[in-house]
Amino acid sequence: MNFKLKDIGPQLITVIAVVLVFGFFTYNAQINMESRGIDFGYGFLSQESSFDVQFSLIEYDGSHSYFRAYLVGLLNTILVSVIGIVIATILGVIVGVARLSPNYLINKFAAFYVEFFRNIPLLLQIFFWYFAALRALPLPQDAEAIFGVFFLTIKGLYVPAFIWENFNIFLYSIIAVIISIIVIRIHAKKLQETQGKQLPVFYISLGLIFILPLLSFLIGGVSLSFEIPVLKQLATTSFIYEGGVSLPPELIALTLSLSLYTATFIAECVRAGIQGVGKGQKEAAASIGLTPNQVLKLVIMPQALRIIIPPTTNQYLNLTKNSSLAAAIAYPDLVLVFAGTALMQTGKAIEIVSITMFTYLSLSISISILMNWYNKKIAIQEK
Amino acid sequence: MSKINFLKPDQSNLNTFLYLGTLLFFISILDVFLNSFFKVNITGFLPGFLSFIIPLLLGFVGLFFIRIEYSGIKKLDLINKHINTNNFNAILSLLIIFVIIKSIPPLLSWFVVDASFAGDSKDVCTGSGACWTYIKVWLRRFMYGMYPNGEQWRINLSFIALALLGSVGFFATDKFKKYLTLYYVVIYPLIAFLFIFFFISGGPVFFDLSYGIIAAILSVILGFFIPSKYKFYYFLIVPFTLYILLKYFIFFEEYIELGKLDGLNWVETGAWGGLSLTFIISFFCLIFCFPIGMAFALGRRSGFPLIRYISIGFIEFWRGVPLITVLFMSAVMFPMFLPEDFFIDKLVRAIIAISLFEAAYVAEVIRGGLQALPRGQYEAAKSLGMGYWKMHIFVILPQALKLVIPGIANTFLALVKDTPLIFVVGLLEIVGMLNLAKTNPKWLGFAMEGYVFAAIIFWIICYAMSKYSYNLEQKYKTDR
Known about the structure:
By secondary structure, chain A is α+β, with helices and mostly antiparallel strands. Chain A is built from 11 helices and 8 strands. A 4-stranded antiparallel beta sheet of chain A has the order 1-2-3-8. Chain A has a two-stranded antiparallel sheet with strand order 4-5.
């Protein structure tokens, strides 16, 4: 008999307490909804939403359903997160390496950047860029072109649009490049393990990256042209740019502040990672005759990345979650479109907040599962 | 004198290279300096692009000339080692020096020279600089929110008193050192709470919370006398029972009058705001999230599977969602979950939401510390016959918490930086007040000053906190 009161008791009491709390909440919610005449259900998702969203990646207007509004918000969140992650990573790696520089000025400059942007609340930074810095930009009619094609105005950034013909062929060529590079890498690794020969994988890959898409242009009939934004007068004092792609100032302010803020944390991760690789490793690798490049590629980076990647992924997650601050400057992300406008219109507080939270939750849990798997895979197998 | 090779500076012609290089370097600095401070362009006679790039070029050549290894001059070697190791570093150093020189005049003129300080209306702000008059006029709102002007001494007095009481630890003699933990964990929060509850609020707002705090403190004190075996059951049952007893049987509604001091008006939480609200919220969340986080960290390492899974679920749930949705939940969803006649003040709701949210992060940090302790510590404590609670309170937690000081400090920093988010529930701390002041028709167009002001304040608070945590970390570092 393994039954022991000592083992069962605490667990039973905890579970009962949790169930009681949840039961209490559910019971109250039912009574409250009955008395207010609200019914519970997700049927509203297919109803017509009848509100408009300023900025959307997919076609959307008031006649579409609430579910499509949810998709619009989700896509906008993902857009901000992806742009932010890319910029933050580039900036973070540069600053992180700069903090390890022997050059005193560069070192202090990077440290200043990190200390400065890390210690100011993100929301304040977003407000600063949106309400103060970007409001100082010129009106569309006064804007000067950057490189002749970009226009940075108070109404947003206007960039040329790509107009592709036979875009799918170009896409196929890119996919072909990726597959062939993977195949070549596997083959090169095999060759080195069995015969000790080394293939110049890097140069072959570089060649492939240029040649295949180029071939698609020459033979496949792919063509690319640009649509440059043109100033157009709407009224005597109202101007607007037509053509091209316009990025609203909300998006610019948000990505700028998110990436500047997150880059400080990524920089610290990178610094910790590179510092975490022992000096002995470098010396040992040099003493067995590896070239400096090989030392970096085969000895330092694999060990540094093992330390860098887990906290950096955490920062990516933080960035994604922080992108919900978009609601404060009316960038139509998931929180603003769905938990804001849609909630106001339908009054379905429980359903909408739970869907929003569940979306973020599933995003972060799936990434953390991926992270755990990756950690297990790269962990040092100690004997 | 040997033959001079200008492409390869060496020691034999040290003086020539030194004078030439220093001269070139200083010309380049002078050019940028004159350009940025006095708007004089000494290279203006050159064509546009060349005049733009010439300081960089001159400086680069100058630095190239003085890059002589083992010159024998200490200062030169120091410069070479720190900013002038190779061509790439030399260019970067020059660029940074130029950027600093270039950015000083505009910043200086905006912050000080062209800024307006005097007066109390918008009319004095005609210069191109910052309008600090705006900050001066609105300062009370930024600090105290909508708190009535005549009553603001209450906030000041409370904060000064709490700061003095908080600094007791620095002056404690060795005799009283052992009571410090008890003081900071139990007595100080109680005093702080009473101050905020009776003095700043002066009304029945926090009553619900006060029952909870009194119940928690009473049960912690009583808990010391309970045998380790029953402590779990005790902490599960007694605090809630006490809370319910206090709320429904001991303090009746009529006694709420007790909470009001004579002569103090009740200021409802909707009027609180500004920087003082930032402090109040950070303070409460800090007090609450720590024990909750500790409990869940222990729960996650517990041997009972059900408790472990519940803790994991709690922690992962709060860590997976953004704070803004949690606050949304506390604002629109939470009232649905309570009985109809049951009302919780929105400040209390926000405090509960932020505390639970940060508690999950604190739990993960503490778990890291618990995992880092060698198993020998647990086994040694057990072999001395210590029970679960005794072992954790006297052996495990003191060591684990020492290990995670930086992590906890980071979480608290994040907490302070997250407070502006309470605008979601309609509370306006300093950033919210700025946004309100910005839309005032009499004071349009001073957003920049406001945000810079708030940024400086937050920066000082956060930087001081991170430095303090670094000091603590160094102080409690024990070799193992």
